[in-house]
Amino acid sequence: MEKQTKDDGEINMHDEMRRAFALLSGKWKLEILWLLNQRIHRFGELRREITGITQHMLTAQLRELEADGLISRTVFAEVPPRVEYEITSKARGLGPTMEALTAWWQIHRDSVPPKRSVSSGRKAKTS
């Protein structure tokens, strides 16, 4: 990818890709988008399906994705209130990228060592 300067009137693709990566960066955003690409989810469903995410972090990530126009949030006036999250058409454009990542992972997953759990990496506490 060629880095172009702003002086020549062209778009600096390095800066533009940095902006694109920033939209998707974060430990949980891609997983949230992947789940919402499959179907509409309620908050509790997302929380159950994303192992290790806290309620606070899920809320923050959903708010950022909504602010960036990648997901939409629908609140239903019911008791108790129901909130659903859905991927937007803008984010649906990432579908081919998600499919390519899935295909890549199916080929290479066996060559990636399993991630150690936090508890297995800790030293035993001595008194």
Helix content: 40-55%
Run of helices and strands: HHEHHEEHHH
What is the CATH class designation of the domain at 28-98?
A: Mainly Alpha
CATH H-level name of the domain at 28-98... which superfamily? Winged helix-like DNA-binding domain superfamily/Winged helix DNA-binding domain
Separation of the first and last Cα atoms: 56 Å
Number of strands: 3
- Structural class per helix/strand content? mainly alpha
Count of helical stretches: 7
> What coarse outline follows from CA principal-axis ratios?
globular
Structure in words:
The chain has helices spanning 13-24, 29-38, 43-49, 55-67, 89-92, 95-108, 118-121; strands spanning 41-42, 71-76, 82-87. By secondary structure, the protein is mainly α. The protein has a domain at 28-98: Orthogonal Bundle (Arc Repressor Mutant, subunit A). A three-stranded antiparallel sheet has the order 1-3-2. Strand 2 and strand 3 (82-87) form a beta hairpin.
